[in-house]
Design brief:
Elements lengths: L1 H18 L7 E6 L4 E6 L4 E7 L6 E4 L5 E6 L4 E6 L4 E7 L3 E8 L2 E8 L2 E6 L4 E7 L6 E4 L5 E6 L4 E6 L4 E7 L4 E6 L5 E6 L4 E6 L5 E6 L6 E4 L6 E4 L5 E6 L4 E7 L7 E3 L5 E6 L4 E6 L4 E7 L4 E6 L5 E6 L4 E6 L15 E4 L4 E7 L1
Antiparallel strand pairs: 1-2, 1-32, 2-3, 4-5, 5-6, 6-7, 8-9, 9-10, 10-11, 12-13, 13-14, 14-15, 16-17, 17-18, 18-19, 20-21, 21-22, 22-23, 24-25, 25-26, 26-27, 28-29, 29-30, 30-31
Length: about 375
C-alpha cells in the first residue's frame, strides 16, 4: 500500500509538472562530448527519449530547418554524422577530413572548417558527400557564413589575420591583418561588415565584408571570447576574461554602448526575441543571469547545475535550455515565469540528466 501511495504521488506530481507548461513540440539533440553520443530530449515530456551512439566525440550539432535531419560533427576524426529526427536514429556518416574545427549550414550545404588539411569543405546535406574544397593559407580558428550564402569569414589566430572566401568561385577574396590574435568572427546581420574578435588587443575589429578594409577597432573591457546577437541583429553581446561583465556593442553604429555587470565570470549566452531577455551562463557559480535587453538590467538569477557552458532558446521563445558540462544535465527555464523581483531569483522548470559533458544542442520541431 505504501509503495502504491508513493507511485501515485509521483504520477500526480509529474502530471502537475506537465500542466505548468505545454512544452515544445519537438526534440533537443544534445552532443555529449565525453559520452560519444547524442542525447535526444523530448521537449513535450521533458525526458530523454534516446541516446544515439557515435564513432567519435561530438562537439557540434545542427538541425536542418526543412528536412527531418540533424548533423553532428566529431572534430577529432573529421566526420559528419547524419541523424534522423523522425526515427531518432543514426543514418550515415561522412569522413571529410582528418581534423575539423566547426560546422555550419547554408541552404542545402554543410560547410566544415578543416584544420587537417587546411580547407573549407562544402558537403551536400541531402546526399552527404563532398561537393568542393577551398584551400586555406593557415590553421583556421573560427568561421561564419553570410546569410546570402556567398561569403565565408575565417579567422587565423596564428597568422594574425582574417580572410573572406568566395563560396561561389572557391577562392579567397581578401586577407586583413590584425595586430593581436583574431578569434570569433561573425557577419553583421546585413552582411555588410565582418565583426572579428581581436583577443590579443582586447578589441572588436569591424571590417568591410566586400573588401576587408578596417572600418574601426573598438576597445573592450574584456577579452572577446564569446559573441551573442540580439535576434534582430541590432545589439552584439560579448563576454570573456577581464571583468564580471557583458559588453554591449551597437554594430550598425560601430560603437560600444555599455559594459554591464552580469554575474560571476559570465560566459556562454543566448537571447530570446519576445520577451527580449539575454541569458548569461556563470560556470564558476552554477547559475544563469537573466538580463532585460531593453533596459540592460539584471532582472533574475536562476540556478542551473555544475558548470553551465551552453544555452539555447526553443523556437517559440518559451524555454531556455542550459547544458551543464560537469553535472551532465540540462536545466530548463520557462521564460514566461521570469519576473523582476526584489530578490532577483528565478526558479527552474525542470532538470534532465542527458549524459557525459554536454557541450552543444540543437532544437528541431
Amino acid at each position: 500500500m505504501r509503495r502504491r501511495w508513493f507511485l501515485a504521488g509521483g504520477v500526480a506530481a509529474a502530471s502537475c509538472r506537465r500542466r505548468r507548461g505545454a512544452g515544445f513540440p519537438g526534440y533537443a539533440f544534445v552532443a555529449n562530448e565525453d559520452g560519444q553520443a547524442v542525447a535526444v530530449v523530448d521537449l513535450t515530456a521533458f525526458a530523454v527519449a534516446r541516446h544515439i551512439r557515435l564513432a567519435g566525440s561530438p562537439a557540434a550539432v545542427i538541425a536542418h530547418p526543412t528536412r527531418h535531419a540533424v548533423y553532428a560533427l566529431t572534430p577529432d576524426n573529421g566526420a559528419v554524422h547524419e541523424l534522423s529526427s523522425s526515427s531518432l536514429s543514426f543514418v550515415r556518416k561522412l569522413v571529410c577530413c582528418s581534423s575539423a574545427v566547426s560546422i555550419r549550414l547554408s541552404g542545402e550545404d554543410l560547410w566544415v572548417l578543416s584544420r587537417e588539411p587546411r580547407q573549407l569543405i562544402r558537403v551536400g546535406a541531402g546526399e552527404l558527400r563532398v561537393l568542393g574544397r577551398i584551400p586555406l593559407p593557415d590553421d583556421p580558428g573560427d568561421f561564419d557564413l553570410s546569410r546570402d550564402g556567398v561569403l565565408a569569414a575565417i579567422s587565423f589566430g596564428g597568422g594574425k589575420f582574417v580572410a573572406a572566401a568566395d563560396l561561389v568561385s572557391g577562392r579567397l577574396r581578401w586577407r586583413a591583418p590584425l595586430e593581436g590574435e583574431p578569434g570569433t568572427v561573425r557577419f553583421q546581420s546585413d552582411a555588410r561588415n565582418v565583426l572579428a574578435a581581436d583577443t590579443g588587443k582586447r578589441r572588436l575589429s569591424i571590417l568591410q565584408a566586400a573588401t576587408g578594409r578596417v572600418v574601426t577597432h573598438l576597445p573592450l573591457a574584456v577579452r572577446p571570447e564569446r559573441f551573442c546577437f540580439k535576434p534582430d541583429g541590432g545589439q552584439l553581446f560579448i563576454t570573456g576574461e577581464g571583468m564580471d561583465a557583458v559588453v554591449v556593442v551597437y554594430p550598425y553604429q560601430t560603437q560600444v554602448a555599455e559594459t554591464m555587470l552580469a554575474g560571476r565570470a559570465p560566459a556562454a549566452m543566448a537571447a530570446s526575441a519576445s520577451p527580449g531577455y539575454l541569458f548569461v551562463a556563470n560556470p564558476t557559480v552554477g547559475n544563469v543571469t537573466i538580463v532585460d535587453i531593453e533596459t540592460h538590467r539584471v532582472i533574475a538569477v536562476a540556478p542551473s547545475g555544475a558548470e553551465p557552458g551552453f544555452i539555447t532558446i526553443t523556437p517559440d521563445n518559451q524555454y531556455a535550455l542550459v547544458l551543464n558540462r560537469r553535472s551532465g544535465d540540462m536545466a530548463v527555464i520557462r521564460v514566461a515565469t521570469i519576473t523582476a523581483k526584489r530578490t532577483k531569483s528565478a526558479a527552474l522548470f525542470t532538470m534532465i540528466p542527458v549524459g557525459s559533458k554536454p557541450v552543444c544542442a540543437a532544437v528541431q520541431p
